[in-house]
Design a protein that fits this description.
The complex is a heterodimer. By secondary structure, chain A is an alpha+beta fold. Helix content of chain A is 29%, strand content 27%. Chain A has a five-stranded antiparallel beta sheet with strand order 1-2-3-4-7, with no helix packed on it. Chain A has a four-stranded antiparallel beta sheet with strand order 6-5-8-9. Classes of the chains: A alpha+beta, B mainly alpha.
Chain lengths: 225, 188
């Protein structure tokens, strides 16, 4: 039988497969069929998308840390980012003191044409992730990780340093959670032309002058890898 | 932010992280794990009912997600539905080997443990008032209950018959009719 001849049977089997009530030999046969038949895959996706709502009442449970450690070990992800080369850090002693030991390593990479994704990861030398910065479809998405002790009456501000031009602010970095904002045309242009990015420590709310008011905590080359 | 906007936003983040996993970015996997593992772990616990087994399954699931991230296409569906399917199918596979040993005291937490984001309203990737929710409301209580026992609890026809005290044939028929009504409603 070809699935096209019996769409209703295919759909009923797909529904019970996704629901989980298709069991045993029938389930294994169906899986083989699904692996090779686009129409069967399409019906499974239909039910996967829709039946998901049945799990709406499931309350999240945080797994213990050993699970993630096990995943890392199984995938051999020993270093935090073995595939990326660290950029050279130009941390300046006085500023490092100001933020009580935040010494950062910046990685930046682009995932090539069509992806429109650029990522910077700012971590401490021990590998603890401080910020991760994504540029995605004209938006800047910054996730704060574990920040080392830092003054609470200051903000961190991210800057693009265009070659031969003035620094352009990309905004204040969050100290917890995720911050997202659309990049203005000026910011996008600055990033496209930037050779480096920098983080400075500024008064709360960001630099009042629109330009850095302190020596950067660090400066790192853009697209280092 | 509205529930629908929050859900679309999370979808976008998950999709971006999957793209990065496909490019072998280990940081992305760690973030994806942070966002998705509490919900997937809860789903696995509901089906497998034993913590050690659910932990093992969760490892399998994230190894699969890492290896198969390049196969995910957002045009064909939502990232959480894709990941949840990987988790549920893995759990059902494990049941094949494990359910022979009955679990007398399910190790289910009495109260939900909160996730990082203290999302108390349940799963943010499910917009309230979705089409399925409206269609589910059209089912009989028996039909809906059977579908939930199967999908969320990983119960077979036989399990549901035993749990609800209804004959096997009746349970099968409720499920079949429930799914048929859903399809008609969803595609109308």
């Amino acid at each position: 039988m070809t699935p096209q001849d019996h769409p209703q049977i295919v759909d009923s089997l797909a529904a019970e497969y996704v629901l989980g009530t298709l069991r045993g030999l029938a389930r294994r046969r169906f899986e083989k069929w699904r692996a090779t038949t686009p129409m069967v895959q399409e019906r499974c996706r239909f039910w996967e998308e829709n039946l998901m709502q049945l799990a709406k009442g499931v309350r999240p449970i945080r797994p213990p840390p050993r699970v993630w450690q096990g995943i890392r070990a199984r995938l051999n992800l020993t270093a935090r980012e073995p595939r990326l080369r660290p950029a050279r850090v130009l941390a300046i002693a006085a500023s490092v003191l100001l933020v009580a030991g935040l010494s950062a390593v910046l990685y930046w990479r682009s995932f090539g044409p069509g992806k429109l994704v650029e990522v910077a990861t700012i971590s401490t030398p021990t590998g603890s992730h401080v910020w991760e910065v994504d540029v995605y479809r004209g938006r800047l998405i910054v996730h704060a990780g574990q920040l080392p002790p830092h003054p609470t009456d200051r903000d961190f501000e991210l800057w693009a340093l265009p070659a031969g031009g003035k620094p352009v602010s990309l905004g204040v970095l969050p100290t917890t959670g995720t911050a997202k904002r659309s990049l203005t045309a000026v910011q996008q242009q600055a990033l496209a032309n930037a050779a480096q990015v920098a983080v400075t420590v500024e008064p709360l709310g960001g630099s009042p002058t629109g330009q850095p008011t302190s020596t950067p905590v660090f400066v790192a080359p853009l697209r280092a890898s | 932010m509205s529930a629908a906007a929050q859900s679309a936003d999370l979808d976008e983040q998950l999709q971006l992280l999957l793209e990065r996993c496909a490019a072998a970015d280990a940081n992305a996997l760690e973030r994806l794990y942070g966002l998705a593992s509490p919900f997937l772990f809860a789903c696995l616990m509901r089906i497998l009912r034993r913590r050690a087994l659910a932990e093992e399954a969760l490892q399998d699931v994230f190894v699969s997600i890492w290896q198969r991230a390049g196969q995910f296409h957002s045009s064909r569906g939502r990232p959480m539905a894709w990941m949840m399917s990987i988790a549920r199918y893995r759990a059902i596979d494990l049941l094949r080997h494990e359910r022979s040993a009955p679990v007398l005291v399910p190790e289910l937490p009495e109260r939900a443990e909160s996730s990082d984001d203290s999302r108390d309203e349940g799963a943010p990737w499910m917009p309230a008032g979705g089409l399925l929710e409206r269609c589910l409301a059209l089912l009989t209580d028996h039909q809906r209950n059977c579908l939930e026992l199967a999908f969320v609890g990983g119960n077979s026809h036989e399990d549901i018959s035993r749990l609800t005290g209804n004959p096997l044939g009746t349970v099968k028929s409720w499920i079949r009719r429930g799914l048929r009504s859903l399809r008609q409603c969803l595609e109308s």
